Amino acid sequence: MANIYLRKYGVDTTIDFELYGIDGASLNTTATFAAGDTTRMLDEAAQGNLGASPTDEGSTYSLAIAAAELQCTRLIIHVVDQTSPKVWLDCVLIVETYGHTSAMHAFDLDSATVTPADGSVTAAVIAADAIDADSIKADAATEVAAAVWNSAVASYTTNVTFGKYLGGAPAGATLAADIAEILTDTGTTLDSLLDAATPALIADAVWDELVAGHTTNVSFGKYLGAAPVGATLAADIAEILTDTGTTLDSLLDAATPALIADAVWNEISTGHTTAGYAGAQLWTDIDAILTDTGTTLDDLLDAATPALIADAVWNELTAGHVAAASFGLMLENVPSLTELQAVCIAGPGAGAGANTVNYTLTNEASAPIVDADVWVTSDLAGTSILASGRTNSSGIVTFFLDAGTVYVWRQKPGVNFTNPETKAVA
Questions:
Q1: What domains sit in the chain, N to C, each tagged with a CATH number?
Q2: Residue-wise pLDDT tens digits, 260-315
Q3: Which of 2, 229, 262, 411 has the most Cβ atoms closer than 10 angstroms to its Cβ?
Q4: Residue 27 near residue 57, CB atoms below 8 Å
Q5: What's the whole-model pTM score?
């Protein structure tokens, strides 16, 4: 049976163990250890020799383990006699680690207290109803309040802190005295003051505030109070509500994103006909498109499927795309496979010009390209063929051409060429 130990992650330690003789009944207290008798395996990784050999402690043995050998979740140590015959039974020691996020047990057993990490205690972590009202002491709030208000003022002298600010009363005065004076002046109590600060009362105080008391430039008070002479914000709002035949609550409730979207898309087009505005231009453009296509907007949208778009591209007539340097013209001028074969097989041959031209075709590594079809035209479009042929084993084809500028075209399955190549014949 293996011996199991619990040790702190990444910290030097020593463990004690016993060895039994081959009979399994009595301890072996005279064992000697050779290199390779003590091996270790970290987290089921490859097995290797432990850094230290066991120490004889009399009836038992001890084994020092380095910090690096404890940077794992589990350390397995084998103490095996490699001599023959063996003098002790094989021994297995298992060390489980703790006190680290990478340990088998993350909790630190050496710490007397546990401090949760920031944000680790959340509502999702705490089981439903795990904490109820009965489990909270009735005097908890009282104790916290007492600790705050009974704290000595002299203990809080750091600048720009609430402690120093509240404790900085004039000589002979105290915070309690200030509060008592405020309560006397207002004829109330602290509890009643705090209870009165409800959202409803705050809202009433805001809206009941006199406009005349807020005249600071670039403030909301002056901006909202800057109504025309003889008018007020309340009067303006009342006039708006009268004109719209509604109330402020109903206006606010109606302004939902869904209703706004419906209002935009359900707007009647005839109400937007002023030239130069987006509404009029939108409908003018859509009507023109529908008239030109002889269809409806729904038909157009339904027809724009990937399959139909692909058909439209590949079924387009080439005659309509002849603009210079365009893809349409380039594809139109590419000879068909039949044309290429005809040129190479039954073309004009090597030509009938006055100059012998040995054209060499090689690849990027300067190796000859053999059995490539080559033809020469007098025009960039490739329609007027002067000569044609096929490269030999040296990548050479011979043409007879007149002086001037010609265009050389190359083709071979599996090889890419940039056609045509412009060449001057002299």
A1: 3-98 (2.60.40), 332-425 (2.60.40.1120)
A2: 877 877 888 777 888 888 777 877 777 787 788 787 767 756 766 777 777 777 78
A3: 411
A4: no
A5: 0.32
